[in-house]
Structure of HIG1 domain-containing protein:
Amino acid sequence: MDMLTILIVLAIGATVATMFMGLLAMSGGGSADREFSTPLMWTRVGFQALTLALLVIAVMMR
């Protein structure tokens, strides 16, 4: 695998991990939900944007 493929896989993994952490925070409710849900959502959106940018770069390079 080349470096770009590895970066894409890592970005997808980070997106999925952040999504599940957000789901766990929301399922707990209470103060954990209020404190962590919004920052985790924005982190997930950032990882999704990174993944999409890496995919566009990969398509343009091939």
